[in-house]
Every structure is written in C-alpha cells, then in structure tokens.
Design goal:
rod-shaped, two-stranded antiparallel sheet
Length: 113
C-alpha cells in the first residue's frame, strides 16, 4: 500500500527528472545547431572550392563548372532551409538573404542555363 510519503517522493523525483530533461534540452539544441552550421560551412566551402577549380580548369561556361555551380546552390539552399541563412565562404560570413546569385555575379561565377 502506498502512503502519502511515497507519492510525495515520487513527485519530487519526477519533478527533478523533468527539470534535468529540460536543462539538457536547452544545452543540447544550441550545440546541435552549432554543429549543423559548422557542417554547412564546411560543405559550402568545399563546393565553392570545387567550383573555383572547375572554372580554372575548364572555364566558367563548361559543363563541369555549371554542375559544380548547381551543387553549390543546392548546398546553400539546404543550409538556408535549415537555418534561414547561408555561409559565404569567401567572406567567411553568414548571410541572411537568399541573394547568393548577387555574390556569385561579383565573383564572375556562371549562373547556369
């Protein structure tokens, strides 16, 4: 048979567990987001490097450059959809607008068909 003390003790344990879970959630979520942003930074910088390499080797209007440009934009789109921002690897800055074509034009990158 359960007593009032048993219920009170159970309530305290349940409250402590809920408090700890909430605390861990507030610590873990920003870290996961930061890890995800770091992954976006790496992936976009790699895609930018592949595009630069393709332009240097084959020219800005080559099939290779166009393919790399599409890959770069797909990675930017993925990051933008997750974080409402995209990484500009050349400027080493997060940008909030969906205006990466503007920055590509400044760099002389091809904009696909």
């Amino acid at each position: 048979m359960r007593t009032r003390q048993d219920y009170a003790r159970f309530g305290k344990v349940l409250l402590a567990a809920a408090t700890l879970s909430t605390l861990l959630l507030f610590v873990a979520v920003p870290r996961l987001q930061a890890d995800g942003r770091a992954k976006c930074e790496r992936n976009i910088e790699r895609a930018e490097a592949r595009l630069d390499n393709a332009i240097h080797k084959y020219g800005g209007n080559s099939r290779a450059a166009i393919d790399r440009w599409h890959e770069l934009n797909a990675e930017r789109e993925r990051c933008y959809n997750l974080y409402h921002a995209w990484w500009d690897g050349h400027a080493h800055a997060w940008r909030n607008g969906r205006d990466w074509e503007h920055y590509d034009q400044e760099r002389g990158w091809h904009h696909g068909p």
